[in-house]
From TrEMBL:
Keyword Membrane appears in the UniProt entry: no
Phylogenetic lineage: Bacteria, Pseudomonadati, Pseudomonadota, Gammaproteobacteria, Oceanospirillales
SUPFAM superfamilies: Homeodomain-like
Keyword tags: DNA-binding, Transcription, Transcription regulation
DNA-binding region (UniProt annotation): 33-52
Designated name of the protein: TetR family transcriptional regulator
Organism: Neptuniibacter pectenicola
Xref: InterPro entries: Homeodomain-like_sf, HTH-type_TetR-like_transc_reg, HTH_TetR
Record domain HTH tetR-type: where: 10-70
Length: 207
């Protein structure tokens, strides 16, 4: 049997990671065995162990490969924020929520790593990485909120503390997504609910 090239080995590794992401999103990490992943990928159990020592090792590698994609959304809204940062913040909330609900791969990433499901030993092992990612999200939100305050679109009295606002916005986003998943709302309802809740939250920040 010919020896695999580095390219072929990497393709196999990526296949295992993408298969794991799909199965974890459908069945949860605890409900998915390494045998399930290898079988769904059309590979042997041994092929999987050649790339990953155990399920914790696989989940760690998967997380490093599958950060929730926000950079493009944020850069778009940062550009728009030159005109109205508060409106851009509202659009960011809507687009972020809808990406986690309606786009296949981002939705899978959200379900596996950010949906607040019961923690497993594998997730506990990468908890610090997930917290770091959430801090990065708060930093992005803070940029838009500070710009909105500078534009006097939200409360701007010196005595007003806006430090808790990014965490409140993140809580709204996570709450919207969790609500739709937990109620089994359809796509149309999910979009309507996302827009409705975002608009009301932004309205509460206005002067």
């Amino acid at each position: 049997m010919p020896r695999r090239t580095k390219k072929e080995a990497e393709q196999t590794r990526q296949l295992l990671l993408e298969t794991a992401l799909t199965l974890f999103a459908e069945k949860g990490i605890a409900g998915t065995s390494l045998k399930d992943i290898a079988s769904a990928a059309g590979l042997t159990h041994g092929a999987l162990y050649w790339h990953f020592k155990n399920r914790t090792d696989l989940v760690d590698a998967l997380y490093d490969e599958c950060r929730f994609p926000l950079e493009d959304l944020f850069l778009d809204q940062l550009q728009s924020a030159r005109q109205d940062a508060l409106e851009s913040l509202g659009d960011f909330i809507i687009q972020w929520s809808q990406r986690a609900l309606t786009e296949t791969r981002p939705a899978s990433i959200w379900k596996v790593f950010h949906q607040g499901v019961a923690h497993t030993p594998e997730l506990e092992a990468i908890a610090s990485k997930i917290r770091d990612e959430h801090r990065e999200w708060l930093h992005l939100l803070s940029k838009l909120i500070k710009k909105a305050r500078k534009q006097k679109r939200i409360a701007h009295k010196p005595s007003t503390n806006i430090d808790p606002v990014p965490a409140a916005v993140l809580g709204v986003i996570m709450g919207i997504i969790a609500s739709v998943y937990n109620t089994g709302s359809g796509l149309v309802h999910a979009k309507q609910q996302t827009k409705f809740l975002s608009q009301h939250f932004i309205q509460g920040l206005k002067l």
